[in-house]
Design goal:
Length: 395
């Protein structure tokens, strides 16, 4: 009895996928991977909201930046690897499920990291995810002679840095931030070093789709956060929150529009692909932070927060400004010219002034609607001839 070729094997050599493979789409495993990361993103945003509402602004910003880095970097590494080497055999699936388990461990440690500064559980979850990635890269080194050197560099680099993360748990609290920055930089350097003599065959259109899907995930988390906050207020008998909810929804809708306004594609050349891929940390973190900031604004409206209205306004305005400036650098300057290119940083600056007025959330919503309207009205005029091929690399 012969076995059909369509039957998924338990193990197959990890050969590279074609970089020009047509119709390359996200797989059910990749979508499941993203879905499980929603938990970690929601935990980070919720903890940020609580810290800001209590007035612990410095602690909130530092903790959120570190926690979100762990979430984002684990997602990024799996995404780019899967784009190049997804074999969909049983061993690959099991290894990826181990990575997902690490994400759940990481999510469980987020509240403790914010409240007690204890990053042990987050570190354990992160290391589980990253060591499972070492298994992936080791298989790629064995199955892909063309990119064996790069795959080995990945496997060795990731392993060494994970030893550093585990050793960091032994350091006194005073060295926590400095050691985090050094290890985060080491993690970020691994792809730059590994891909230096020849890029692994990741698929630009597939990467673009995957980043778009994760953008939708953090946007969805922001919508959920607003909905839950409004529901809590209504349950407490406070029915004057509808206009604030509407303004918050408009802000999230505008962020979606501005990100997906033009067809985009990850740059194909290494320096630009790293800038594009790494820069999305700010986009993802900013969107989730906008959701947390809107919930803080609801708390201030309900008089249950321990901060001023100006501070609550900046909890929304600051991540909006970060989002606009990052989208401007990564997308707008590559695809537009003229008024729209100037408008993004101008609106970002105006967003930072909005909390000084009486109704910052409404002003921010109006500013974003104005920017969306401008991009729509000037779309045909402000798209230059050099961008006819979406995502063309900068000269």
């Amino acid at each position: 009895m012969t076995v059909s070729r369509s039957v998924r094997p338990f193990y197959r050599p990890m050969r590279p996928r074609r970089r020009d493979e047509p119709h390359r789409a996200a797989t059910p495993l990749e979508l499941f991977f993203d879905l499980c990361f929603v938990v970690a993103v929601a935990q980070a945003a919720s903890s940020l909201h609580h810290d800001v509402a209590e007035g612990h602004l410095g602690h909130a910003a530092a903790s959120y930046a570190m926690v979100f880095f762990a979430i984002w970097w684990s997602w990024v590494n799996f995404t780019w690897f899967a784009s190049a080497y997804d074999t969909d055999d049983d061993v690959y699936r099991i290894t990826t499920l181990v990575q997902i388990s690490g994400a759940l461990i990481l999510a469980a440690g987020v509240p403790r990291a914010f409240t007690d500064g204890d990053f042990a559980v987050i570190t354990y979850g992160y290391v589980v995810m990253r060591l499972a990635a070492v298994v992936h890269w080791s298989r790629a080194a064995a199955g892909d002679p063309t990119h064996r050197v790069a795959a080995r560099r990945y496997a060795i680099g990731v392993t060494v840095v994970q030893l550093g993360w585990l050793s960091r748990l032994l350091l006194p609290d005073e060295g926590g931030v400095a050691s985090f920055v050094l290890l985060a930089l080491a993690d970020l350097l691994v792809p730059a070093v590994a891909e230096r003599r020849g890029m692994t065959p990741w698929h630009p259109q597939h990467i673009t789709e995957r980043y778009g899907l994760f953008t939708l995930i953090v946007l969805g988390e922001a919508v959920l956060a607003i909905s839950v906050a409004i529901q809590t207020g209504l349950d407490a008998g406070e029915h004057g929150l509808w206009s604030l909810a509407a303004a918050g929804a408009v802000i999230v809708f505008a962020l979606w529009w501005l990100y997906f306004d033009r067809p985009i594609e990850a740059p194909a050349r290494l320096p630009y692909s790293l800038i594009w891929g790494y820069g999305h940390y700010l986009i993802f973190a900013a969107i989730a932070a906008v959701g947390a900031g809107l919930v803080v604004s609801v708390d201030v409206e309900r008089h249950v927060a321990h901060i001023s209205g100006i501070t609550a306004g900046y909890a929304v305005a600051t991540p909006i400004a970060v989002f606009l400036l990052t989208v401007w650098v990564l997308h707008v300057r590559r695809q537009h010219h003229g008024v729209v290119v100037v408008a993004f940083p101008v609106v970002a600056l105006l967003a930072l002034l909005a909390p000084l007025g009486p109704v910052p959330v409404y002003v921010l919503a109006a500013l974003l609607v104005g920017l969306v309207t401008l991009t729509v009205l000037l779309r045909s005029r402000d798209v230059g001839p050099s961008t006819t091929a979406a995502g063309a690399d900068p000269a």
